């Protein structure tokens, strides 16, 4: 793996550190006395040596109080993060979450109670934290991160993600990089701390826009969702998951046509559960439950409270260091493997020049010359570093296949069975857009044995 070798600690450019990691201007700070300057020099030397300042220093308290921080997600990780930030001393916290509280959340999302079921996670979490930690202001938003514009995100000094959605992570990652304006770094350069858990495993990382690797750079590290062959789920199901896949992949479109089920709608999940349960009985299969149905269609991996606590603690520790500059921050990726013991591994994940978000080179696809347009679409879905769902394809002069609008989709639909070579030549570029990809991707086409 790239970046596994030991390297010198990365230091953030001083100008960017000063502009983004504290909201105190020169005018707002008291005039420096010789003793202040000496203390500052000593502190900088300590930071370089890895020695943190005293935790009760007044300047640390001020930095935490002045730092406005955004938490994205108020679920298993989000609850831990909100609690940690408030108890650490952060006073200005905002939280975004589009989900409502479900009974299954209560075993680990400790800011919620049974009376809160059906309510907004962000709203309830904000009220709970403020009721327990005097002086902290938590501002909630019940909705999607895509609802907010650049001006909203520019108000924060730090952003922490506690998401369970790859699509949402890709979107906010692209947003913070897209926002960077070299002429206005103070308002546009926002460090992102990302945490994620998967059973007994987890990761925490720091993304410094345009400096470190971004989330898109590490897309190929993600484990692919479990899939089942269509022939198995249609003819010879053996597992409760097969029955659920049958209900969602085959039975739902047969009954409801082009209507898409909503994984956050209890009525839709219940319909799938009932259909899967009926099919399971036909084949004498046990184990189909509502929660399993929800887990399969949403690709949910069972959450473990201790893993959430460890990863949230790591994220908040990095937020503290970035906000106060008392110690070097993580460089830049930490992995936790709780199934092998209490074990963590830290390494510097390298930037990828061909990353569509932070890189400056295009990706290359080496294909057989008899590849069809539909096969290219399947290739982009399977490729670990793109993982696209419904890509649209076009060149500089023509549309090859477009998902939308409907009229253009109908016009390009016959192209799916045509050879890709009818539209592009060796070395030409295809522009790929997809709902899962927050930016367009330039794909250079080359032919094998050309």
From TrEMBL:
Reaction equations catalysed: ATP + [NEDD8 protein] + [E1 NEDD8-activating enzyme]-L-cysteine = AMP + diphosphate + [E1 NEDD8-activating enzyme]-S-[NEDD8 protein]-yl-L-cysteine
Pfam families from the UniProt entry: E2_bind, ThiF
Domain of life: Eukaryota
InterPro entries: E2-binding, ThiF/MoeB/HesA, ThiF_NAD_FAD-bd, Ub_act_enz_dom_a_sf, Uba3_N, Ubiquitin-activating_enz, UBQ-activ_enz_E1_Cys_AS
GO biological process: protein neddylation
Pathway(s) served: Protein modification; protein neddylation
Keywords: ATP-binding, Ligase, Nucleotide-binding, Ubl conjugation pathway
All residue ranges annotated as the E2 binding domain in the record: 365-448
GO cellular component: cytoplasm; nucleus
Residues at the catalytic site: 231 (glycyl thioester intermediate)
EC number of this enzyme: 6.2.1.64
Coiled coil: none
Ranges for region Disordered: 1-42
Top enzyme class: ligase
Gene3D superfamilies xrefs: NAD(P)-binding Rossmann-like Domain, Ubiquitin activating enzymes (Uba3). Chain: B, domain 2, Ubiquitin-like 2 activating enzyme e1b. Chain: B, domain 3
GO molecular function, a single term: ATP binding
Protein family (similarity comment): Belongs to the ubiquitin-activating E1 family. UBA3 subfamily.
Function in brief: Catalytic subunit of the dimeric E1 enzyme, which activates NEDD8.
PANTHER family per UniProt: NEDD8-ACTIVATING ENZYME E1 CATALYTIC SUBUNIT, UBIQUITIN-ACTIVATING ENZYME E1
Name this protein carries in UniProt: NEDD8-activating enzyme E1 catalytic subunit
